[in-house]
Amino acid sequence: MSYSLRSHHRDWLKRLNHRCQFSGQRAGGHGHRYNFHHTHSGAYGHEKPGWNLLLLTPWAHRLVHTLGGTPMLGMQKNAVTIQNRRAKRLFCSWLWSFPNPLQRLFHLVCRMGGVGGVFLLGAISLFIYAMSEL
Fold first, then answer.
1. pLDDT tens-digit series, residues 6-48
2. pTM exceeds 0.90 for this model
3. What is the 3-state secondary structure (H, E, C) of the chain?
4. Rounded Cα–Cα distance for residues 61 and 38 (Å)
5. Residue 33 contacts by C-beta under 8 Å, 6 or more apart in sequence?
6. Residue 95 · residue 60 · CB < 8 Å
7. In Å, what is the CA distance from 86 to each residue of 28, 29, 54, 97, 111?
């Protein structure tokens, strides 16, 4: 955890309205568990809440790491390192290294939030459905 994250922790929770940016559930404060998630490694020390630092519930944080192929490592500090090591052994490693295309989509949905995120997911679902009917 970077110094910046520790020193601004409470301010950022308040700025993000104590809400998970993926699910909208309460996160942080009064017994609600939460995790901060960096969208890329270059964000360490240069955090911008809501953009390269996402407030997530533990479930949503595990989900974003599951999309990267490291489901059980989502809460460990070295989950991204392990994901990238595994990616190097696979065909088209850029497709699997952090953040992979599914994780990038997850980050985008979180950044859009609320109705915009739901609209984006719906549009992608319709696109996939239409392509499967061809």
1. 677 788 888 888 889 988 888 876 778 888 888 876 666 777 8
2. no
3. CCHHHHHHHHHHHHHCCCECCCCCCECCCCCCCCEEEECCHHHCCCCCECCCEEEECHHHHHHHHHCCCCHHHCCCCCHHHHHHHHHHCCCCHHHHCCCCHHHHHHHHHHHHCHHHHHHHHHHHHHHHHHHHHC
4. 10
5. 27, 57, 58
6. no
7. 32, 36, 24, 8, 27
